[in-house]
# Entry
Amino acid sequence: MDVCSEQHLICLDLGTTYSRVWLLCGDEVVARSIRPVGVRLVATEGSTRRIVTAVRDLVADVRSQAGDTHQPKCIAAAGMITSELGLKEIPHVVAPAGLKEIVSGSQWHHLDEISDLPFLMVPGVRTTLNNSPEDVMRGEETLCLGLISSGALTIPGVVMNLGSHWKAIKVDSSGRISKSVTSLSGELIDAARTQTVLASSLPKEFLCKLTWKWVEAGMTECRQAGLPRALFRIRLLEIGKEGTAEERLAFLAGAFIAADLDALVARGFLEDKQVVLSGRPGIADCWRRALQEISVQAYVLSTNDTERVFLIGLQQIVNGVQSRKEAQEAQMSIG
# Structure
């Protein structure tokens, strides 16, 4: 069994659209590197070639930045790297799942085409209904562990990750992930903005701040006419020369927020009344205001805090795996 020292550790998060790598010395980030490459490419191209190249280059980059002083012994990897679209599929653990279950489901593997270091692969979490998958996650479980450990999430509570996918995660009073709900809203916003007739109505780049009045207008339109009609309304706004491209983007975001928020409320998902939001800043802040209007307390993590708690979560898993190994060795010596 491989051994990984917490003192020097490479951490990897392979997502749908981005891949991130850090080299840690204890709690300090010595080096970091990021590339706009994720498993969406595998879904569209049918090959992991570009993922392998990107991860190999990212690992080499942080090792080069850190220099000979910092010699990591392993790579702790979470996210979509362990999915069927990733580089080594690892089975999900079944909810309810906390640190103990995630540690038990983690596996050591070697990916020689990427690095000479061993990989500690972190499993995702699956919620089931009548023995069929109800929802899945990969990466967010690590974020949840870090939020709990750092005290940023009061349990029971809800974590909402607003990236390529919008995922709401319920964490129970024991600190275990009990269920989750995922939508494609993040990807659909980008697709509507770049791959449909709405492209001329909207700005080319996403904004860090969205005008709340226009977000509200999009939410209202979605609730009155449905999401598809609300999206076409953006085209009509452009034809009628109503609003700027940036304001119409806020309208678009509002339509998707209303669709997902109303579905979560209908499921009784927000009864815990405490939500931590992470993800794209402009979207996360609009979600905070939308939740506030239905009397749900919400807190937005900064980009830096999201990184910090994710790395805390990965370190917890590494420590848990090491402690489990030591306990097994101690038991064997007794026997």
About this structure: The chain has a mean pLDDT of 94. The longest helix spans residues 303-334. The chain has ten helices and 14 strands. The two ends are 19 Å apart (CA to CA).
